[in-house]
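Good day; I would like, with your permission, to put a structural problem before you. What I wish to show you is a protein chain and, alongside it, a tokenised description of its three-dimensional fold. Thank you for your consideration; the sequence and its tokens are set out here:
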Amino acid sequence: WYQRRVRVQTFQHYFKRINLSMAETSPIKILRMACQKKTEWEKDEFLDSVYWIRQIIAIVFGVVWGMIKFKGIFGILIYVMLNLGIIFFYYSSYHEVDEEEYGGHGELAKEGLLTSFSLFLVFWIILYTLYMQPAATIAV
């Protein structure tokens, strides 16, 4: 009985530590910091903010592209250029960070780019498909 109680307490302590460490770097906290101009960042926090902003951009543009029925490579190229442009503005003008401190323009440009591109494609394809279906064929 005593050994079981000690194991349970050990697991509870372990999970409390995990929850505390996750709460310190939650996406909500990082996005809140990202909205404040010229915030002091640690390297991982800033890269996380770039990652999460890219995910938001992907969802927004995926929904918009699907609703206005963009097609083909033109839609993809516009998305990539806008995504890179917004992120460049975000770190160079909005926060005025030294990009060399975070690995240079290349590192910041590719941080979360492929995952956001995948998310963008998912939203774009789903919404485009929904809006292209005739009203009679959509299952309710």
About this structure: The longest helix spans residues 43-67.
